[in-house]
Write a structure and sequence with these properties.
Distance between the termini: 44 Å
Strand order of the largest sheet: 1-2
Radius of gyration: 23 Å
Helix content: 40-55%
Order of helices and strands: HEEEEHHHHHHHHEE
Strand content: 5-15%
Structural class: mainly alpha
Largest sheet: 2 strands, parallel
């Protein structure tokens, strides 16, 4: 390992500060740490650790608590401060998009979707701020519309999350050769990888994907692009088609 770090320093010009570094064991190393680690001078850490702004530990189920809840408190604090200003609903909507929801963009992009109750909480905070904690004066479904259609183009949080997830499909299907695409290839191998996104499937057809993040990406795509059988039925692909299945499962042979 020391040789690897020395080679990294030689290639990049960056030297690892061992005194400020921690080892984060993975897999079997969690319970059985090699003896040479004790002589290496780096303290083992069992988390949580923060990498590129995301907190991790060995329990993936805690990703939500480690990352989203802190940002929710931050969002509420920001909206509380701005609620003391005499702003119009249009002005408040600008604050929501510029300072509040921006706290979550990176999390929504790189982490599995938060629970539904969390999304409802965030959506509720937005409308409480817009209407100064008073009852809604306009139906929420109307508020999501553009100004021309009688709304304020308020962000629909669930759709916002789905849109950020769908961007991954575009990245996955581009011509760039990226190592991370191997993870998508592996978990989508039964659907023939990128070919899945040419097919007519619904979100319910891909809930069996084991990786939660990739499942969220596929569900978002399926929800947005699913077509009924009478829509362009003559040009629909037979494979991975929600209306052509065996034992209620889409097929690819």
């Amino acid at each position: 390992m020391r040789n690897i770090l020395n080679e990294f320093q030689y290639a990049s010009g960056l030297k690892i500060n061992l005194g400020k570094s921690h080892l984060f064991p993975l897999g079997p190393l969690i319970l059985n740490q090699p003896e040479y680690l004790c002589d290496f001078g780096i303290t083992p850490s069992f988390g949580p650790i923060k990498f590129l702004g995301i907190s991790f530990n060995h329990n993936g189920d805690k990703l939500f608590r480690l990352n989203y809840l802190q940002k929710l408190s931050r969002l509420k604090s920001i909206l509380h401060v701005w609620s003391m200003r005499d702003l119009t609903p249009i002005g408040k909507n600008i604050i929501v998009k510029s300072f509040a929801l921006s706290q979550f963009v990176f999390l929504f992009q790189v982490l599995p979707d938060p629970p539904d109750y969390f999304i409802k909480d965030v959506q509720g905070c937005i409308f409480d701020f817009i209407w100064s904690c008073n009852p809604d004066k306009v139906r929420r479904n109307t508020m999501y519309n553009s100004i021309e259609n009688g709304g304020l183009k308020i962000t629909h949080v669930r759709s916002f999350i789905s849109a950020l997830k769908i961007i991954w499909v575009k990245r996955y299907r581009d011509e760039d050769d990226r190592i991370w695409k191997l993870f998508f290839d592996y978990y989508l191998r039964r659907y023939r990888g990128q070919f899945l996104f040419d097919c007519n499937f619904s979100s319910q057809d891909v809930i069996g994907i084991k990786n939660v993040f990739i499942r969220n990406v596929c569900c978002a795509w399926g929800t947005m692009n699913f077509h009924h059988p009478h829509d362009n039925f003559d040009s629909q692909i037979l494979w991975n088609n929600s209306y052509i299945n065996i034992n209620k499962t889409i097929v690819f042979l």
